[in-house]
Write a structure and sequence with these properties.
CATH architecture of one domain: 2-Layer Sandwich
Helix content: 25-40%
Largest sheet: 7 strands, mixed
Strand order of the largest sheet: 16-15-10-11-12-26-29
Number of strands: 38
Number of helices: 20
CATH superfamily of one domain: ATPase, nucleotide binding domain
Structural class: alpha+beta
């Protein structure tokens, strides 16, 4: 039986499943006969598990027993605690339950055949989020799985119904994310020109806007509630019910201009501080909703314009905006986006199921026998094994109703020979055609999906010839995607030179066509012996911030460890051949070959990332506060030198992140805050890059001032000359981007430091600071011992003892890990 194909839209709020048999797409409804299934789990007091609609309806009434919105935490260490369960659930656990439920909708006859399943992910998902999605599929017991970016799936769905050529724009607004894709179709073939979006922009955010700006103020005016009831565990049910009522009202406004946010006391079952039963009865209108949504819509329009700008298109170049996703069923939203963009709106696909339908269509284009789930070849060839090396080349996949086939002969042609091609499905026959090198014929494709043909060959006397391969399979497809652009730039961190600064060696840049393969060559900067606990470190970053590299988003780390090989030494300077493949989904595969020891190391063994810890529920408040303040301090410092509006925008992003500290118990707000901090870093980098010479000159001037104020009076003539030479080198390197400037700046700082460490006042001040901050040290006994020695050195005026004590204290001081960094240090340099 032929292989069948399944597409799953694993959504933030709703999920859907479809199948494709090569000809027809079929949607499988939930047990309640809905097109989509809520992405929700609920466990009752008896331990029974519910998935989908029933779980969603119960989640607000007893949120301690429910799991929702977990897609937003895929690839992080956020745990979902469920009352009555011995162990908390991971986002992968929850997603696997949704996948199992969706697969149970498939009919028995489909589950009995070989199935290839495509699961969609947002274009903004990083390596760890994609890996987590694959892990969820494995936990669900789904066999052959591939991932696909949601915008690509939406484009495939549009192409199934779209009849005309041209450029169109996909505006896919789901429950959690906005994905934007620019596509161009020509004769059924489509190329994605660019895509973009907003990671935390979706229907869920609109629900929260209604709750925070309408429901909460109304509750405070009507009932006696604590000022912080939104984060008070006693009112957790009230908050969940308020968000549910907000969502219901939002959906109702898709059909009418006015509604009431309503819920009875018996449904909420929560009392205020005076013992009064709480209810909702709040007048609400589309006009008010439009006002609340305005900023988010502006943000989405800005992201849409940015996607167009990437490929230098204007709105006049685009035929229509195709709206996908549940929130786009709200007509005022569609009208607003279309008006702001100046592009005609289109609703040619079902916004709720388009992504799952497109995923099923795309599943047919995948070669499921390939380990990396590459796409099927668009061209095919069969060798007959007879008659002068006869073979046939043909178009194996096409959207057209015909496919060309060409005969290829060896050196000698056979006089009078002929060939014939019959369609095994329809009975059509080409009749006999003279067999010559280059003989071509258009085969009519009688149906969508697989078309089976058989080739016959006759010699000059008309006798049929036995041939080894006589079958040809040509697929007529609904649509064919030629190019899928990478949504993010991804690179490996490398030293520019031994002892130099770091840079990103890009494997793929945003907009590059996927899939992509290539090789980068590095060299080890230190030796690694077999069995050693040390490792050669390959850090993978997402983003295009040149300096510092750590301002990008760390998405994975791959290590070649000493324990990974049993014999030999990877010497310092040894070549490291890094072969990489970026799949259609954006997933990264690495293989590092070390010719000097004859070994290969695959990334599948230990691909991991600190990204899993970035929004830990246990450290969220501290992480957000520290990271936001660190970036704010850098902005304040650079603002003394340059005046750039992007610095103001960055500060606003950081203010939003810091404001979320009031709700740090909510991992959703923590994730939003971390995204705001990342955006602030991008704005800071852009401002720095456009004013680099000014900033660098200011850095030089500051170090010169420090030298004149603190070090010159105690410096030897040779040290003054060396410092001034370093200043000249820094000024010479001010325009360079290869790390030379940073190296010159470090030399200036090092020369100042050497002089300062000779000064008694500096030593005493440094020791007094260290001895007054015991919280910076993990070992209180060793800390106390060194402080005692240092105090004795001060009492006896022994500066050598005091200097040595300061250094030892600094050695045992808790080292603060830099933002988005991990303990492993990069020890590879770009080679050739």
């Amino acid at each position: 039986m032929a292989m069948k194909y399944v597409g799953i839209d694993l959504g933030t709020t709703n999920s859907a499943i479809c199948s494709f048999d090569g000809e027809n797409v079929r949607l499988y409804k939930s047990p309640e006969q809905n097109d989509v299934t809520p992405s929700a789990l609920f466990f009752d007091k008896r331990g029974n598990k519910y998935i989908g609609t029933r779980a969603y309806n119960n989640a607000a009434k007893d949120p301690s027993r429910a799991a929702t919105i977990f897609k937003r935490f895929m690839g992080t260490d956020t745990l979902i605690k469920i009352a009555g369960l011995a162990q908390p659930l991971t986002p992968e656990d929850c997603s696997s339950e949704i996948l199992k439920a969706l697969f149970s909708y498939l009919p028995e006859e489909l589950r009995d055949v070989e199935v290839g399943t495509v699961i969609t992910v947002p274009a903004a998902f990083n390596q760890m989020q994609k890996d987590a999605t694959i892990a969820a599929a494995e936990m669900a017991g789904i066999g052959k799985v591939a991932l696909l970016q949601e915008p690509v799936a939406a484009v495939m769905s549009v192409m199934r119904v779209r009849k005309k050529d041209g450029v169109f724009l996909i505006y896919d607004l789901g429950g959690g994310t906005l994905d934007v894709a620019i596509a161009e179709s020509t004769g059924g073939r489509v190329s994605l020109l660019a895509h973009g979006g907003v990671a935390m922009c979706g229907g869920r955010d609109f629900d929260l806007l209604i709750f925070n700006n309408v429901v909460k103020p109304w509750l405070r005016s009507k009932f006696n509630l604590p000022s912080d009831f939104a984060i008070d565990p006693r009112f957790n049910v009230l908050n969940k019910m308020g968000i549910l009522a907000s969502e219901r009202a939002k959906i109702e406004l898709s059909q009418k201009a006015d509604t009431v946010i309503t819920m009875a006391e018996t449904e909420i079952n929560v009392k205020d501080l005076d013992g009064e039963d709480i209810y909702f009865d709040i007048e609400f209108s589309a006009e008010k909703l439009n006002g609340l949504m305005e900023d988010k819509i502006k943000e989405s329009v800005a992201a849409t314009r940015e996607a167009l700008e990437k490929v230098q298109l204007s709105p006049q170049d685009v035929d229509s905006i195709v709206f996908v996703g549940g929130p786009t069923q709200y007509k005022p939203l569609r009208d607003k986006v279309a008006f702001e963009m100046g592009i005609e709106a289109s609703t040619e696909v079902n916004p709720m199921t388009a992504v799952s339908e497109g995923a099923a269509l795309f599943a047919e284009s995948i070669d499921w026998s390939a380990e990396n789930r590459t796409r099927k070849e668009s061209r095919g060839s069969v060798s007959t094994g007879s008659l002068s090396d006869l073979s046939f080349n043909f178009i194996a996949r096409t959207t057209n109703p015909k496919a060309k086939i060409v005969a290829k002969l060896g050196d000698a042609e056979i006089s009078g020979a002929e060939f014939q091609i019959d369609n095994l499905d329809t009975g059509w026959s080409s009749g006999r055609i003279p067999l010559k090198n280059g003989a071509a014929f258009d085969l009519p494709l009688g149906k969508m999906g697989d078309n089976n043909f058989r080739v016959f060959v006759f010699d000059g006397a008309g006798r049929p010839q036995k041939i080894a391969n006589d079958r040809i399979l040509i697929a007529r497809t609904t649509a064919s995607v030629d190019a899928i652009p990478a949504s993010k730039s991804v690179g490996i961190e490398s030293l520019t030179k031994i002892g130099g600064s770091t840079e990103l060696v890009y494997l793929v840049k945003e907009g590059d066509s996927l899939p992509k393969k290539g090789r980068e060559v590095f060299a080890a900067t230190e030796s690694l012996r077999a069995g050693s606990p040390k490792a050669l470190v390959f850090k993978i970053w997402e983003g295009e911030i040149p300096d510092p590299v750590s301002d990008n988003r760390l998405i994975a780390t791959f290590e070649v460890r000493g324990s990974d090989f049993s014999d030999g030494v990877i010497a310092a300077g040894a070549r490291l051949l890094c072969d990489y493949e970026i799949l259609d989904s954006g997933n990264i595969l690495l293989k590092v070959s070390v010719p000097s020891i004859g070994s290969d190391f695959q990334s599948g063994r230990n691909f991991y990332s600190r990204q899993r810890e970035e929004i830990s529920s246990t450290t969220a408040e501290r992480d957000i506060s520290e990271k936001a303040q660190a970036v704010m301090d850098r902005i304040d410092e650079i603002s003394l030198v340059i005046d750039d509006p992007r610095l103001t925008d960055a500060k606003e992003k950081l203010s939003l992140a810091q404001a979320s500290l009031a709700d740090s118990a909510n991992p959703e707000e923590s994730k939003r805050a971390m995204d705001d901090i990342q955006e602030a870093k991008k704005l800071l980098s852009q401002a720095k890059n456009d004013n680099l010479s000014i900033i660098r000159m200011a850095e030089i001037d500051q170090l010169v001032e420090n030298f004149d104020s603190w070090a010159r009076k105690d410096a030897k003539p040779t040290e003054i000359q060396a410092f001034e030479n370093a200043v000249k080198m820094a000024k010479r390197d001010i325009e360079k981007t290869n790390g030379d400037f940073e190296s010159s700046l470090r030399q200036m700082g090092a020369k100042i430091s050497i002089i300062l460490w000779r000064q008694p006042d500096f030593l005493i001040g440094r020791f007094q600071w260290l001895s007054s901050h015991p919280q910076l040290f993990n070992d209180p006994v060793e800390y106390a011992r060194l402080v005692k020695i240092g105090n004795e050195g001060m009492r006896t005026d022994n500066m050598d003892v005091l200097r040595k004590t300061c250094w030892e204290l600094m050695d045992i001081q808790i080292k603060k890990v830099s933002d988005d960094d991990i303990s492993a240090v990069v020890n590879i340099v770009r080679g050739s």
